[in-house]
Amino acid sequence: MAVDATSISKLLLTVPEAAKALSISPRSLWAMTSPRGPIPAVRFSRSVRYSPQALQAWIDSQNGHQDGNGADGRGDGEPSA
Questions:
Q1: Long-range contacts for 21-25 (Cβ within 8 Å, ≥24 apart)?
Q2: Is residue 28 part of a domain?
Q3: What's the total number of domains in the chain?
Q4: Is residue 42 in a domain?
Q5: Strand partners, 50
Q6: Band of the pLDDT at 57, cuts 50, 70, 90?
Q7: Which of 45, 70, 71, 78 has its CA 20 to 30 Å from the CA of residue 5?
Q8: Position 17 in a domain
Q9: Does residue 67 lie in a domain region?
Q10: What is the Cα–Cα distance from 52 to 42, expressed in whole angstroms?
């Protein structure tokens, strides 16, 4: 049975693809990648890939920490001075 590559979504994203999906630089993504940071990654030898589902789960977990209320809870989205 032949598999049509265009009908299959990617299971894993490369560093540039994941960075673009998160709207951050590859360098920022690398700094936030486990074990240095909280973003989970899959490693194959020297290659690093990111699961779209794991990235979405990480984004969802951040919503509780960044609700727009700011660090002081004033609701203006600005940190306290």
A1: 21/52, 21/55, 22/55, 22/59
A2: yes
A3: 1
A4: yes
A5: 13
A6: very high
A7: 45
A8: yes
A9: no
A10: 11
